[in-house]
Specification:
The chain is α/β, with parallel strands linked by helices. It has three domains: about 40 residues, no CATH class; about 210 residues, Rossmann fold; about 180 residues, Ribosomal Protein S5, domain 2 (2-Layer Sandwich), CATH 3.30.230.10. About 25% of the residues lie in helices and about 25% in strands. The strands form six sheets. It has a nine-stranded mixed sheet with strand order 8-7-9-10-6-11-12-13-14, sandwiched between helices. The protein has a four-stranded mixed sheet with strand order 15-16-18-17, with helices on both faces. Thymidine-5'-diphosphate (TYD) binds next to helix 2 and helix 3.
Length: about 450
């Protein structure tokens, strides 16, 4: 016998609770603890599935290359993908494009698009704009969960897009449409159907301003993949990432642009992200991310200005605590007086650079902005810094450096003990103090400080 499940749960965060309390001990929300589980004991026979009869899992490529890369190949049968992003970012567009591409790729079965927010006419108009009208794609405009469940059971589609799960509601549950209980009920029921039937289920979810999915992350554990679409609504670039991916590696980054006729994959994301840099200006440094299987070049930008009051540390795409730590280390080892300055740091192109691998690039960008020294556009900085001010190599150094070389970043500023590709320049930096001394040598017109022409050659370090 398995132990009985806890009888209460928080409707805000989903955490189970042994007894009723006024405040959830997990998320701190008030009056959200409710009775959760009715007794499920039953004498009905249990239906078991012989292992050899279990259908094979198939992954279907959508042909949207950046999406397929992020998903590690494509969309998997019986999987549940939650697409989340801010209003207007392109979730409906992406899902319609996925539906059309999967229609082209799958021979059998229907594709069902449930529109809980827009009318059939509006979805049809968007499909025409995208060139996504296909035979075998059906629309259902409803926000009533029982209608959606009925449609799924009757049609048993190969692919179902629910746009959005945040707006579905069912009268059998308490709470208004969009409430945590309603959204969870819908996601749970639809996910169970997908797993039973092998349908590829794509759920669209809204995120609130602070980045949380309505019902704080309560859907993440119900789904196989959480696909984020991010970007600035006023610019074309869109970034796809996964924070959870049961069928592949999370952390892969896909770069697309929102064009007149929908989302288009960027052919060479590293080159595209760096192409926007223009002429060399102080405060700009390139680095390479490698959280996913494919390394990605990014530009780190910094601005240092005199502080009017208490010094501000403002970041975009880089963890705020990391920036505070890096400025403190710079101050402790470089005596720059950043305590009297506002420091702004951003990773270009709506990409998140949460890896410590960019520490050296962030520091170099701040130094470059602070001193007004623009760096050679061929410079790439890679390395993690500790509290002692010493730089050390990071994981996947080889892959990162090969990607840097491929796109012309051939002056490689790296910690000791790193070998750079043939023909590239290695500038070996052991400490923050050394970085300060060498900064002016990284300007465009200064000669390379040391060159490595053969693997194994050691460059002169500082
Ligand atoms: P949409 O997919 O409706 O966003 P979401 O579902 O996340 O709210 O897309 C919104 C924006 O995208 C809208 O401002 C118009 C723009 N857009 C294009 O630029 N090109 C297109 O082909 C389409 C369909 C939309
Ligand atoms: Mg939409």
């Amino acid at each position: 016998m398995s132990p009985k499940p806890p009888p209460y749960a928080c409707t805000e965060c989903g955490a189970p609770a042994a007894r009723w309390t006024g405040q959830c001990p997990t998320c701190g929300a008030w009056n959200t603890i409710e009775e959760a589980f009715a007794s499920s004991a039953s004498s009905a026979p249990v239906s078991l599935q012989p292992l050899e009869d279990v259908a094979e899992i198939v992954t279907v490529a959508t042909g949207i290359t950046e999406l397929d890369r992020v998903l590690g190949g494509g969309v998997t049968t019986g999987s549940v993908t939650l697409v989340i992003g801010e209003p207007g970012i392109g979730k409906s567009t992406l899902c319609l494009q996925i539906a059309a591409r999967l229609r082209d790729a799958i021979d059998e079965g229907e594709i069902l698009i449930v529109s809980a927010e827009e009318s059939v006419t509006q979805v049809g108009a968007r499909a025409r704009r995208l060139g996504a009208e296909r035979h075998g794609v059906s629309l259902l405009a409803t926000s009533h969960l029982p209608d959606v469940e009925r449609a799924l059971e009757q049609r048993n589609p190969s692919v179902a897009v629910i746009d959005s799960v945040s707006t579905l509601h069912t009268p059998s549950q308490s709470g208004s449409p969009g409430s945590v209980t309603q959204v969870r009920t819908a996601a749970e029921s639809l996910s169970q159907f997908a797993r039973r039937s092998g349908t590829m289920l794509i759920l669209v979810g809204h995120v609130t301003k602070d980045g949380d999915l309505a019902g704080p992350r309560s859907l993440e554990h119900l789904v196989d993949t959480v696909l984020h679409i991010e970007g600035d609504r006023h610019h074309q670039r869109r970034v796809l990432t996964t924070t959870k991916h049961r069928y592949g590696r999370a952390g892969e980054v896909g770069i697309l642009t929102m064009e007149e006729h929908g989302l288009v994959s960027v052919a060479d994301p590293s080159a595209a992200l760096l192409a926007e840099r223009g002429q060399p200006l102080p405060g700009s440094v390139a680095s390479i991310l490698a959280e996913g299987a494919h390394p990605l070049a990014v530009e780190i930008q910094a601005l240092v200005t005199p502080a009017a009051g208490s010094p501000a540390r403002v970041t975009q795409g880089i963890p705020a605590t990391r920036l505070r730590q890096l400025t403190a280390v710079l101050d402790a080892h470089g005596e720059l007086g950043l305590g009297r300055s506002d420091v702004f740091v951003a990773c270009s192109g709506a990409v998140k650079a949460a890896e410590p691998a960019v520490d050296m690039a962030v520091m170099t960008a701040i130094l470059s902005a602070h001193t007004g020294v623009a760096l050679d556009p061929a410079v790439v900085c890679l390395g993690e810094v500790g509290l002692t001010g010493a730089f050390r190599p990071v994981a996947a150094m080889d892959r990162r450096l090969r990607e840097a070389e491929r796109i012309g970043l051939t002056r490689m500023v790296v910690p000791p003990g790193v070998t750079v590709p043939d023909g590239c320049t290695r500038v070996e930096i052991a400490t923050v103090a050394a970085l300060l001394r060498v900064l002016r040598d990284l300007a465009p017109d200064s000669p390379p400080a040391a060159t490595v022409t053969r693997e194994g050659d050691r460059a002169e370090g500082w």
